Amino acid sequence: MKNAVKYYSVGALLYCPANRAGIAESIINQKFGDKFSLALCLEDTIGDDCVEEAEEMMRGSLEKIYRSSQKKVFYLPRIFIRVREAEQIVRLMKMLGKVSEIINGFILPKFSLDNADAYIQAVRRVNENVKSPVYMMPIFESPSLINLRDRYDILYKLKEKLDQAEELVLNIRVGGNDLCNVFGFRRHSNESIHKIHPIAGILSDIITVYGRDYVVSGPVWEYYDGPGWESGLRQELEDDRLCGFVGKTVIHPKQIELVNEAYQVSREDFDDARQILGWDADSRFLVAGSSASERMNEYKVHANWAARTMMMAEAFGEKGGL
């Protein structure tokens, strides 16, 4: 289990096309608040014949953000670039020059056995000449995961590759919409992806393989307006959290606050986690009633939960406080 808050604090990852005009001004003026991360996308949100133009527009936006950050104080989110292929990673870092200091990492779409080695090698290469680590966040969304006979082998083989660079893997991400697209599925605003059993099975398998060693983020929620979108998002976030996901990909600023609220830690959980972590492991009694006298706390079976809860509290805060 990850034991540093940096892995939990990506939180709400706001996706934005890399060629979006005005994104720099929105960041500099804190239009989206002060508790989110930013993904600049050069892949699915960009036309195939617009990539070079989008890269140039992204460079201009990042230069503006970088220059402003040298002159005044504002919330600078963690910034990630979603690339199309491994070779972009090294090329973009060179193109950005000193501005690359505000880049926290790269998002690796459709991560698969076909591209994993190239992606990992590229991220390792850019880390040879930086002051702070440049992380990777692979996305599990390849249609190759659909085939039950191959899925387990693929997931474990990919984990073996990622484990060789584990210190550079900030999050594992999942592409819920891409996986739904294979079947022609699309959930409505009152439907959780965890109720779509063929997709939920894939998500569960990803958590089973990666959840003990990595933080895995929840799939995107595509509704941001209209009847029931908020209640629908809250329900899916509740399902995400129960199933072991931390954080979520978002596509509209209105979703950010709901994601952050969903991962705040309750006072009861916070108090119980602190009690469990403060337990004397040599005590004759390793079980006791909870702080609110409502449930059982047992050191041997709740220690990992307690450690994870305290990381979440540091990353997202406590409900009604902290």
UniProtKB/TrEMBL annotation:
* Name of the protein: Uncharacterized protein
